[in-house]
């Protein structure tokens, strides 16, 4: 550390964002990785200090910074806690891109992650082939031998993974026309949630269009420090959705929504849209004890926390119960549970403790990663609760 | 040093002993970024026994050590004098016992202040001292700094709420001070350790008093045309014999910053100052008090708003408690000053403080515990600008001198640390400092526990005590 390390323009670009941090530490206790390790370097303030140090040439960009930036869940709970308005999510993406540029993420896990995010996830055909393979492996019971694969939900039958119809007609008095964003993983593994989303929107008077050319939004790639791939995917979707005849682009995946919002002012989370429009109260009754768990990228990334709760409370029979710390991460965090299994499990364990204590019939959360993580967690822990997306519960209430 | 590292690793495990350069780099400052110094190692012990063994290992190698909580301190207290080892208590974060009947809780030092009140909520009790940093700061840090908060006015500071302590003395011995009942015969050693700024030993277990959640709480805002009339209203309220739970003033520049942050609470940006008054107690009494406070505020030219519900009340307080960080929006660094003046002199001193800020061409805002006369002039700056940094330090000193001349003291609640140790002679003579030094030496004769803090650097020079390594070399 004696000689001054070189500061490239990319590293220097990290600097302005770090200056908003006044080092007050108010974010520390909101950070799941800090709570787990107790290390300053795994706290938001520590990570920002490291990035600032690197950008100022006070420390070289080395292993500790690379490790800690990748140990970060990207949950952005620190942004909600920070009174100084530090845009941490953006800083993290830049920091991780710098780490990748410096070749500090070339281990097997890093390479595999990059490959998958660049060459599999954004390609519908390839992703589908991989999901098909997973389905076979699940049927043969092979997934037992591949720890990350154990997280995956039972792959739905191929028929339910079929593409959504291009349009759903509005029911009742028409309130507008919206586009549905299908997502990459959502479309493959949670096509039933997509269908439920379209049905619930239609029930609420929205005509729904599903532009067929749309693709992956680029969120996972941006989070993993691959802004180039992310930009390419963003540009593709921008062209697909540009000028379309709809008032909103509806997302039911918190991670995708949070990523798309800064690029397109029309993006809305499905719960937010329904709440704003005024939910048509379902006539059915569901006598259930429900815990709502905030997806980080809905609460901390988009500031949406009350809307889903209001929708759930509107369902006759639903008793919404609080569990400890619904706004803290479940450890899914995009690809995190696969690339950082140890920390992910520790973070999940705290979440399951809280949920177990509240003992709900249903756990509700609106993001594919969280759905997978909580389903796998609930199964392992032996919780009786079913884990659902809010629109699934609404959909049932309309049908009940 | 590498021998010491090996010894520390053997005690706490390799993963809880940090020695890589970047890992140490992030420990070079606490909430005060003006002073920095890098430790030679950081350990994260899991229990009292590990703390005691770490202390003994450091002593065997002649290396000083420094306890640390969340590092939200504002006087440089948790920063290691050069080559010191930081004993980071963040992993000792368990609430060990809650007794509703005895109205007490036993906690490890790394428990976060706000988490304690959450953990005991089911008993109908709470832990009263509420520093604005309560969402992050630890009870270990609170004990060391004798922290206060907005509700100090009625409930007192940390020292009024600590019943007993377990601590590791600087020679590695584990002792228990005080008693669960609060009655301990002999000298009040708990009283000495609370506010000892981590120089008397490492606190490893804290027994705190809990108090009942009041039956009713009302919070009102007095919106004043200027800060001086707000201060006069505070004087009138306290003179009348009312004891509000809190009396806080937020000035115009602070309001602007808060309202631009996530803690925006709908504070009026056209006000010259906002006075937050909280009243608590039995319902009937509180209603009467609200009316009396309202009259005092109105007669001093204010407009009054009462929080309509619990959510609005929480929002007011979040705005008040987030004020420091919100001011971070104005510049990369913030210097939070802390001094106390007799309440009657508040208006006059505030005017002088603002004048000092202007004269040094600094952006200065005020948010403070008006009921206690505890001022927090906050100065926004950029530490990379050497000239501005020098002006910040000079203005800070002038503010302290002004407060002391008015009969005040140089710190209300943030402690002396490295920040103010050179100003101690403003307040204390040789004999006073000697008495304090003797107390300190009876705990830590070799001054290995958090050296370089509290006492002015000219007092214990290296000649008089060659073992006090680095004591005189802390950058100021
Ligand atoms: C935004 C903000 C608002 C604040 N508001 C207030 C306020 O309203 N009132 C107030 O009083 N303070 C306030 N502070 C200052 C600070 O939060 C308090 O001093 C707090 O008690 C420090 O706790 P910590 O855990 O961060 O301790 P640290 O900063 O880590 O350490 C502080 C001191 O405690 C010592 N210490 C830590 N742990 C132990 C232990 N186990 N045994 C012995 N010594 C120990 C350290 O050596 C150091 O000297 C504020 C700070 C910030 C950033
Ligand atoms: S709360 Fe914000 S300003 Fe304070 S340390 Fe955390 S990131 Fe920095
Ligand atoms: S994004 Fe989440 S894990 Fe990362 S620093 Fe912020 S709070 Fe911690």
Could you give the topology of this structure?
The complex is a heterodimer of chains A (400) and B (476).
Chain A lengths: L8 H5 L1 H4 L13 H6 L6 H13 L6 H9 L5 H5 L6 H14 L6 H13 L3 H17 L26 E2 L7 E5 L4 H5 L1 H13 L2 E4 L9 H5 L3 H15 L6 E4 L2 H7 L6 E3 H8 L7 E8 L3 H7 L3 H9 L1 E5 L15 H4 L1 H18 L3 E3 L3 H14 L4 E3 L1 H10 L1
Parallel strand pairs in A: 2-3, 2-4, 4-5, 6-7, 6-8, 8-9
Antiparallel strand pairs in A: 1-3
Helix pairs in contact in A: 5-7, 11-21, 14-16, 15-17
Chain B lengths: L1 H11 L4 E2 L2 H5 L15 E3 L4 H13 L4 E4 L16 E4 L6 E5 L4 E4 L5 H8 L4 E2 L12 H7 L6 H4 L6 E7 L5 E5 L10 H5 L8 E8 L1 E2 L3 E9 L2 H13 L6 E6 H8 L13 E9 L1 H17 L3 E4 L3 H12 L1 H5 L5 E4 L2 E2 L5 H14 L3 E7 L4 E2 L1 E5 L4 H20 L18 H4 L2 H14 L33
The complex binds flavin-adenine dinucleotide (FAD) and iron/sulfur cluster (2 copies).
Give an account of the 3D structure.
The complex is a heterodimer of chains A (400) and B (476). By secondary structure, chain A is an alpha/beta fold. In chain A, 50% of the residues lie in helices and 9% in strands. Chain A has 21 helices and 9 strands. A 5-stranded mixed sheet of chain A has the order 1-3-2-4-5. Chain A is globular. Chain B is an alpha+beta fold. Chain B has 5 domains: 2-88, Uridine Diphospho-n-acetylenolpyruvylglucosamine Reductase, domain 2, CATH 3.30.43.10; 95-212, 2-Layer Sandwich (Uridine Diphospho-n-acetylenolpyruvylglucosamine Reductase, domain 3); 216-325, 2-Layer Sandwich (Alpha-Beta Plaits); 331-421, Alpha-Beta Plaits (2-Layer Sandwich), CATH 3.30.70; 428-468, no CATH class. A 7-stranded antiparallel sheet of chain B has the order 15-12-14-13-18-20-16, with helices on both faces. In chain B, α8 packs antiparallel against α13 and α13 (346-359) runs antiparallel to α14 (386-405). The longest helix of chain B is centred in the last third of the chain and has 20 residues, at 386-405. The two termini of chain B are 25 Å apart. The model of chain B is unreliable at 460-476 (pLDDT under 50). Classes of the chains: A alpha/beta (400), B alpha+beta (476). The A-B interface holds A 1, 19-30, 34-35, 38-41, 45-46, 49-50, 53, 58-59, 62-65, 80-85 and B 18, 20-23, 25-27, 29-31, 33, 42, 44, 70-72, 88, 90-91, 93, 110, 112, 114-115, 133, 135-137, 258, 260-263, 322-329, 332-334. The complex binds flavin-adenine dinucleotide and iron/sulfur cluster (2 copies). Flavin-adenine dinucleotide sits between chains B (30-31, 66-74, 77-78, 89, 109, 131-133, 137-138, 140-142, 144-145, 147-149, 197-198, 202-203, 324-325, 413-414, 450) and A (24-26).
């Amino acid at each position: 550390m004696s000689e001054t390390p070189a500061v490239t323009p990319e590293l220097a670009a990290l600097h302005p964002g770090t200056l908003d941090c006044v080092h007050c530490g108010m974010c520390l206790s909101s950070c799941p990785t800090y709570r787990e390790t107790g290390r300053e370097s795994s706290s938001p303030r520590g990570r920002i200090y490291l990035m600032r140090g690197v950008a100022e040439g006070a420390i070289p960009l080395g292993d500790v910074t690379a490790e800690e930036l990748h140990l970060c869940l990207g949950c952005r709970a620190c942004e909600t806690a920070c009174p100084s308005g530090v845009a941490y999510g953006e800083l993290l993406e830049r920091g991780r891109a710098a780490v990748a540029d410096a070749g500090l993420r070339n281990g097997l896990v890093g390479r595999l992650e990059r490959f998958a995010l660049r060459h599999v996830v954004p390609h519908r055909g390839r992703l589908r082939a991989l999901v098909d393979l997973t389905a076979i492996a699940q049927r043969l019971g092979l997934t037992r031998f591949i720890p990350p694969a154990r997280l995956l939900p039972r792959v739905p039958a191929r028929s339910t993974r079929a593409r959504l119809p291009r349009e759903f007609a509005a029911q009742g008095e028409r309130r507008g026309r919206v586009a549905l964003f299908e997502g990459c993983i959502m479309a493959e593994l949670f096509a039933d949630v997509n269908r439920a989303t379209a049905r619930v929107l239609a029930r609420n008077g929205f005509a729904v269009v599903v532009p067929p050319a749309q693709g992956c939004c680029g969120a996972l790639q941006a989070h993993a420090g691959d802004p180039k791939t992310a930009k390419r995917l963003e540009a593709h979707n921008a062209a697909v959705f540009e000028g379309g005849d709809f008032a909103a682009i509806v997302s039911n995946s918190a991670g995708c929504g949070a990523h798309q919002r800064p690029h397109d002012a029309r993006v809305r989370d499905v719960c937010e849209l329904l709440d704003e429009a005024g939910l048509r109260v379902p006539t059915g009754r569901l006598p259930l004890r429900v815990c709502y768990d905030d997806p980080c990228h809905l609460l901390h990334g988009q500031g949406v926390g009350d809307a889903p709760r209001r929708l759930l409370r509107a369902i006759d029979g639903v008793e919404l119960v609080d569990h400890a710390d619904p706004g803290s991460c479940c450890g899914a965090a995009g690809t995190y549970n696969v690339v950082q299994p140890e920390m992910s499990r520790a973070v999940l364990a705290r979440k399951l403790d809280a949920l177990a204590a509240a003992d709900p019939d249903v756990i509700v959360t609106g993001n594919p990663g969280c759905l997978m993580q909580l389903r796998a967690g609930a199964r392992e822990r032996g919780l009786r609760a079913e884990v659902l997306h809010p629109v699934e519960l609404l959909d049932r209430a309309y049908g009940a | 040093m590498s021998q010491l590292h090996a010894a520390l690793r053997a005690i706490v495990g390799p993963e809880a002993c940090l020695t890589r350069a970047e890992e140490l780099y992030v420990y070079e400052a606490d909430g005060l970024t003006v002073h920095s110094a890098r430790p030679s190692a950081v350990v994260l012990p899991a229990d009292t026994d590990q703390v005691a063994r770490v202390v003994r290992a450091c002593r065997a190698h002649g290396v000083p050590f420094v306890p640390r909580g969340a590092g939200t301190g504002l006087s440089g207290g948790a920063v290691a004098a050069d080559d010191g080892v930081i004993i980071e208590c963040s992993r000792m974060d368990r609430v060990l016992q809650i007794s509703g009947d005895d109205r007490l809780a036993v906690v490890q030092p790394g428990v976060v202040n706000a988490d304690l009140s959450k953990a005991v909520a089911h008993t109908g009790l709470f832990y009263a001292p509420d520093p604005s940093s309560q969402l992050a700061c630890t009870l270990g840090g609170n004990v060391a700094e004798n922290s206060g908060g907005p509700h100090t006015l009625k409930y007192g500071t940390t020292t009024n709420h600590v019943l007993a302590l377990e601590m590791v003395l600087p020679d590695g011995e584990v002792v228990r001070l005080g008693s669960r009942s609060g009655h301990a015969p002999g000298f009040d050693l708990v009283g000495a350790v609370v506010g000892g700024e981590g120089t008397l030993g490492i606190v490893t277990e804290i027994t705190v008093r809990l108090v009942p959640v009041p039956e009713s709480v009302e919070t009102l805002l007095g919106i004043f045309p200027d800060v001086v009339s707000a201060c006069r209203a505070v004087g009138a309220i306290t003179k009348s014999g009312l004891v509000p739970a809190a009396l806080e003033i937020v000035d115009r520049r602070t309001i602007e910053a808060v309202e631009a942050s996530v803690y925006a609470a709908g504070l009026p940006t056209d006000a010259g100052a906002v006075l937050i008054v909280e009243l608590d107690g039995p319902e009937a009494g509180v209603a009467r008090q609200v009316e009396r406070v309202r009259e005092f505020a109105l007669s001093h030219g204010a407009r009054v708003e009462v929080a309509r519900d619990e959510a609005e009340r929480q929002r007011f307080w979040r705005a008040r408690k987030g004020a420091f960080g919100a001011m971070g929006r104005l510049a990369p660094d913030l210097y939070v000053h802390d001094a106390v003046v007799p309440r009657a002199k508040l208006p006059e001193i505030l005017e002088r403080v603002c004048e000092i800020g202007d004269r040094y061409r600094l952006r200065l805002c005020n948010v403070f515990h008006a009921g206690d006369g505890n001022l927090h002039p906050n100065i926004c700056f950029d530490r990379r600008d050497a000239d501005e940094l020098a002006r910040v330090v000079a203005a800070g000193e002038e503010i302290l001198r002004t407060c002391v001349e008015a009969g005040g003291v140089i710190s209300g609640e943030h402690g002396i640390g490295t920040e103010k140790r050179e100003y101690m002679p403003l307040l204390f003579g040789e004999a006073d400092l000697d008495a304090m030094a003797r107390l300190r030496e009876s705990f830590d004769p070799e001054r290995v526990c958090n050296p370089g803090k509290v006492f002015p650097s000219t007092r214990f020079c290296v000649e008089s005590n060659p073992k006090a390594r680095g004591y005189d070399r802390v950058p100021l």
